[in-house]
Specification:
The protein is of the alpha+beta class. Helices cover about 45% and strands about 30% of the residues. It folds into two domains: about 35 residues, no CATH class; about 140 residues.
């Protein structure tokens, strides 16, 4: 540090440009004193140590950081969900009476469901061919502290309007810092779709 201050003083004092040199004796004395007694600076911690400590602090106390990590732990669900919905779609196509559409696992870290933090959601829409009726099966992963719950609600759309057919129901719980059981969740999603097929079929057969 001291050598750097000295080099800077000499560069300025011996500059070829007169205007760049010290313009007053007081200015020169001040810089000489700075070289002789440089200001004490606190020691700088090791970069790796600081990064590790502050990262841990954020994981423990910052909710957005926690939910982002929970979402990352849940992202392996995306491929499994897509494969499952594609398989369901192929089954429905064989009978040419129902169709399904779905959205991918999406990040919704700022929304709230039942006083919890919703950090992921996806939806499956079930429709009967040639009928203006559909069920939206809305799934979400919601964190209450470090515990996460996977649940769903069903919204029914008919010519009479939109109606909540099933309120929020939880079918799986796990700790957010771990990866959820994909097979268990997929099995529950298939069960929800299966029940919805029976319900929407009955609704159509009864004239909505």
């Amino acid at each position: 540090m001291q050598l750097g201050l000295l080099n800077s003083l000499l560069d300025r004092g011996l500059s070829n440009e007169l205007d760049a040199r010290f313009q007053t004796v007081d200015d020169l004395i001040s810089r000489l004193n700075e070289v002789a007694k440089p200001s004490a600076r606190p020691p700088v911690e090791d970069l790796e140590t600081v990064v590790a400590r502050e990262s841990l602090a954020l994981r423990k106390s910052d909710r957005k950081t926690q939910l982002t990590e929970y979402f990352q732990n849940a992202t392996p669900l995306r491929q499994s969900l897509e494969q499952s919905v594609n398989a369901i779609s192929q089954t429905l196509l064989k009978h040419r009476m129902f169709s399904v559409y779905h959205t991918q696992l999406l990040d919704r870290a700022n929304s709230k469901i039942l006083d919890g933090d919703c950090f992921a959601h996806w939806a499956i829409q079930l429709q009967v061919r040639d009928h203006p009726v559909n069920f939206q099966l809305r799934f979400a992963i919601v964190a209450h502290g470090s515990e996460c719950e996977v649940g769903y609600e069903v919204v029914r759309n008919t010519p009479k309007g939109e109606q909540l057919a099933n309120t929020w129901q939880v079918f799986y719980r796990y700790q957010g810092d771990s990866e959820p059981d994909k097979a268990a969740i997929i099995a529950e999603v298939r069960a929800v779709v299966t029940n919805a097929i029976s319900a929407i079929s009955e609704l159509v057969r009864n004239g909505y």
